[in-house]
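Summary for the lay section of the report: proteins are chains of building blocks that fold into shapes. Here we show the chain for Late endosomal/lysosomal adaptor and MAPK and MTOR activator 5 and then a coded description of the shape we predicted for it.
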Amino acid sequence: MEKELDKVVEEIMSTPNVNGCLVADHQGLCLASKGSAHVDSAGIIVAISEQACKIQPNLKPPTVCLETDNKICLIQRHGTITGAIFKQKGAA
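The coded shape description reads as follows.
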């Protein structure tokens, strides 16, 4: 499974403007981290996703978008796994 996860992370990292990727389990344990994503942020990323799920608990988990002037962090939960993609804002 670790090789499959590494393959997915590498594929995400090859996407234009992506400069970081993190995958964590339901307890906030970092399973994979690459680029600008910090291992220490795994717990807070999972917590943000869990809180967002409480807004409409009967629907599938929402995608959370955190945005600054020049960066975007997308957080998505799928089952017990939560992923975060860090992107640099740029032209197309």
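Put simply, here is one thing we learned. The radius of gyration is 13 Å.
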